[in-house]
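Usage

Read records sequentially. Each one opens with the input sequence:
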Amino acid sequence: MKKTIPIKKENHPIFSLPRTFGQKASDKITKWVGSWIFLILLSFLLFLWILLNTSWLFFGKYWDPKPFILLNLILSFLTALQAPIILMSQNRANERDRIRTEYDYAVNRKAEKEIRDIKIQLDRIEKKFAEKRK
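and closes with the structure output:
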């Protein structure tokens, strides 16, 4: 029988993928942008911006006139930066999933072959016992 080598985490193809600085940064930014803390913080800052700017309008002071053009510009800029970063991170996740699927398929094929070999050996053993009984 063949000896099987246990798979170590360091040898697993998913964990040994080289990552560039940009890929690491996009993964971290996507993790932060997709968190509840970010959503709550952004909502709070938007609410505060609108509240302060609207209340100052009553006193004749404002930094962003009523349709909030500056706020729209900032949000558009944020969106324009976030979208490609999130897409880069999703592409990396798809790449990891593809590699994981290929690896699982290879492991399943190997396990299937080993099971087939074990079944053949069990059939041989069964035949020998059957011959001894007769």
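Summary fields computed downstream for this record:
- The mean pLDDT is 82.
- The chain has one domain: 21-133.
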